[in-house]
Structures are given as C-alpha cells and as structure tokens.
Amino acid sequence: MLINVEKCMHCGACVGSCPQNAIFLNDIFLEFNELCNRCGRCVKACPVGALRLEAKR
Amino acid sequence: MKLKYDVVVVGAGPAGSMTARHAAKGGASVLMIEKKPEIGAPLRCAEGVSKEGLKKLGIMVDNSWISADVSGAKIVSPGGKVLQIDEKHAGNEVGVVLERHRFDKAMAAEAARAGAEIMLRTSAVDVIKKGGVVTGVKAKCFGEPLTIEADCVVCADGFESQVARWAGIDTSLKAGDITTCFQYRMVNIKHDPEFCEFVIGSMAPGGYVWIFPKGDDTANVGIGVLLNKLKKPGEVKSYLDRFIAKDDRLKCGQSVEAIAGGVSVCAPLDKCIGDGFLVVGDAARVIDPITGGGIVNGMITGMHAGKVIAKAVECKDFSEAALQEYETLWRDDLENKLWRNWMAKEKFLTLPDKTLDDVIETLNEVGVERVTVYNLLKAIKEKHPDLVKEFEEFL
User: Does residue B172 sit at the A interface (CB-CB below 8 Å)?
Assistant: First the structure.
C-alpha cells in the first residue's frame, strides 16, 4: 500500500473500514500488517485520496 | 512496565469517559487510556447533539462546552425545497452544537472526579487472552511497552474499532454501511445561525451535506458520502468543494479547519460482550444510520456499561454471562431505533432527487413538530406509505 503522507489526515477512516483489521494508525503514521489482502477498501474510504494500491511485483 | 486494574477503558471519547465514570463511581478501579496526546482533539465530528439526549444521560448543558444553541433544523431537498422545523416556537428543548475539544475533556474530567485514572499518548496494540478470556491489553505509553491487566477491558476506540476485533467480535463493516466524511470549519459565511441544516440528494450520494452553526458567521460545513457510491479516491472532498462553490452563502467564506473521518451506518451488531470485555460507542457501531449522530447513543452504551461493570466488580464475575445485563440494557434503549433507521437508510438511498423533492414538499403540508427521525418517518408514512412499508412495524 502506498501512503501519500502529504495527503493523509490521520483520521482513521481506513482503519475502521478495513475488513481485515490490518491497518494501525499511530496518531501520525499508518502501518499495514500482513493481514492486508489488497482488497482496496481503504483506498475508497480515504476521504482525501491518500492511499494507493502498489502494483504487484 | 505492568499495571493492574479492575477495568481498563481503551479510548477517552464520550463513550469511554461515560463508562469510566460510572464504573469508578460504582467502586471499580479504572484506568482509561487515550492514544492521542489530547482528549477531544483533533476533532472528528460535526458536533450536533440533542438536549433531550444529554438530559437522558443526566448531563446538564454547560455553556463552557457549547458553541451554539439552535432553534431547530432545516432539511433541504435537491431542488431547493425546504422543510423548516422550528421547535423553539413550540417551547421545546432543541439541540446544541458542541465544542468537542472542551466537551470531551469535561466528560473525562467527570470520570476523573469519580476516581478513574487517565493515561494519555497510550495506545492499545493488542489484547491479552488466557484460555479464551480477555485479561488485559498490551499497550504503548509514550512509545514504551506497557502491560495492563484488567478483569474487564472496555473497547471504546471509536470508528476504528480494533480492540473488539482483537478480542473476538467481528465489528467490520460492509461497504454499504460506511460513510466517508470531510468537513471544514468555515468563517465569514452567511448561513442561518439558528438552524442546523441538512441538504440531501445526489450532491452527497447516500449521505448529506450539513451546515451546523458554531456561533456568529461560523459553522461546521461537511459532507458524508456512502462508501459504495464513491468512484474515485478522494472524491468526498471534491463533492464538498463543489457544493460550497455553488452556494452563495458559503462561497464567500474561508476555512479555518479541515477534518476527515469515517462513520458507520450499519444495523446493530449481534453481540457486544464476551468473557472479560465489552464494546461501547462508535466501536459498538451504535451510530444512528440515518443521522450519523453517535454522541448520545455512544454515551448511553457507556452509562449502562459502567453501571454493569461496577456490579461485576462487586460480584467478582466478569464472564460473558455477568456482562449480559449490559447487552440487555443498551438494546432496550437503542436496538429497535437502530434497526428502523438502518432500514430507512437502505430505502432512502435508492430514491432519485425528484422523489426527495416530493417528500420534502409533502412533509411541509403535513408539518413536523419535532426534529426526530421518528417524527419525520411518521410524517412520511402519512403521505408516502410505500416508502416506509418495509419497516412499518417500527412506526
């Protein structure tokens, strides 16, 4: 997951929307853990478009 | 470091503070932890609340934490038809727009006065379980690892709702039950400072635009859009910017604050308790699915939770069976209303702008005396029975 830190408002909309509970917001930064299955829900949930799915390597 | 309390409350929002307050008042040793360095900040809320709701919670309105006292609500249809509900004329107690920065601190202060301890900059990172029973949380306090053992863990971590999920209750939401929000605090605008305004229709798909007065020429101007109606990342902010640019009262203004957030608009959860833990507030998904309002509902769950926990401390029993009373009490207060409003939301998001115009117009003919979802739905039933037939039994 690519996080645009200049856009992110640390609001937690992605955290509560994540069906996997895979995101952790530590006040000023987001962490994605291994439970993330790249469903893309957080990308949509982010009110400011700060998240982007990385192209599969 | 290791700490031991009867109760640990994760999250110091209004629901957490209410739980902590009532549990401490009942004799429990309570620790409330808050991830952020300041309770009530940053804001994640439109701040509207009904006076009746606060009264029910035994909270006296204090001018130090409100920024506006309103006369009622205006509901504006896509075509500009306005339903104005002026309650002050009827002598009713209406609503207030809070100053959450102060309100949340005042509620936490009440918890502290009842005997609860508070730790800031302390985030839960996992729950501790022994043989399926939750026995505490693993946390970080100013970056240092901390173990908090507790007979009861209260999951009050808001929309993020991670603690309940770690504990074993699936609070995850469907895309159709999530509203994504963006809000400006606007100044130098020409809104009506006496009314909370709700603008519905396709300019805010599946949600609405709100203008909640904050005194003088200032208001919270925000938007909520249903997640499954969004097509592009970051679209919700563009929807609000577009609305403001088209509104003569707003486009002359400036923003002094911008905030974002998520809101659940789902049906009630099947379960909010387990062995050694319970879930309250936004984390328990008790936000009203029609209005998106969660303060009073959250505090009602907190009040019941705190009281039940105090009893559990006395009996030294924190099993799911002992906490069942909490489940019964909050459901008696809220469950039917949440189901009804969720069904209403599901119905209304299917309606085209033209129908919404018709509904608002006919509501004006019927007249609505009080600003409650129930009263609005009753009035709709009179003129458009087809729109409410799926949840008629709740009206």
Answer: yes
Is the model's pTM score more than 0.90? Answer: yes
Name the nearest CA neighbour of B302 among B333, B265, B276: B333
Q: How far is CA B263 from CA A56, B282, B284, B374, in A?
A: 31, 8, 12, 21
Question: Does B264 touch chain A if contact means CB atoms closer than 8 Å?
Answer: yes
Would you call B159 and A13 a contact, using CB atoms and an 8 Å cutoff?
A: yes
Torsion-angle region of residue B47: left (phi > 0), alpha (psi -120 to 50) or beta?
Answer: left
The answer to whether the Cβ–Cβ distance between B234 and A44 falls below 8 Å is no
Contact across the interface for B234 and A16, Cβ inside 8 Å = no
What is the pLDDT, as a whole number, of residue B369?
Answer: 80
B123 touches A: beta carbon within 8 Å: yes
**pLDDT under 50: residue ranges of chain B:** none
Count Cβ–Cβ pairs < 8 Å, chain A vs chain B.
Answer: 92
| Rounded Cα gap, residues B199 and B83, in angstroms | 10
Asked whether residue A10 carries a pLDDT value surpassing 90, the answer given is yes
Per-residue confidence (pLDDT) for residue A57, from 0 to 100: 59
pLDDT at B92: 73
Q: Which of B299, B76, B159, B198 is nearest to A42 (CA)?
A: B159
Question: pLDDT (tens digit, 9 = 90+) per residue, A32-55?
Answer: 999 999 999 999 999 999 999 987
| pLDDT at residue number B395 | 84
Helix (H) or strand (E) holding B126: strand B122-130
Contacts of A50 in chain B (CB under 8 A): 234
Paired residues of B134 in beta bridges: B129
| Per-residue pLDDT at A55 | 78
Query: Could you tell me how far CA A51 lies from the centroid of its own chain?
Result: 6
Q: Is B13 near chain A, with CB under 8 Å?
A: no
Q: Using CB atoms, which residue from B165, B175, B260 is nearest to A47?
A: B260
- Give whole-number Cα distances, B153 to B104, B156, B169, B253, B319, in Å: 21, 9, 13, 45, 12
| DSSP assignment letter at B56 | H
Q: What angle do CA B181, B259, B208 make, to 5 degrees?
A: 30
Mapped onto helix, strand or coil, the DSSP state of residue B263 is strand
CB spacing of B181 vs A13 below 8 angstroms: yes
Residues of B in contact with A41 (CB under 8 A): 175, 227
Least CB–CB distance from B172: residue in A7, A14, A19? A19
Reported ipTM: 0.94
- Predicted pLDDT at B393: 85
Tens of pLDDT, residue by residue over B355-370, are 999 999 988 888 888 8
Q: What is the pLDDT of residue B370?
A: 81
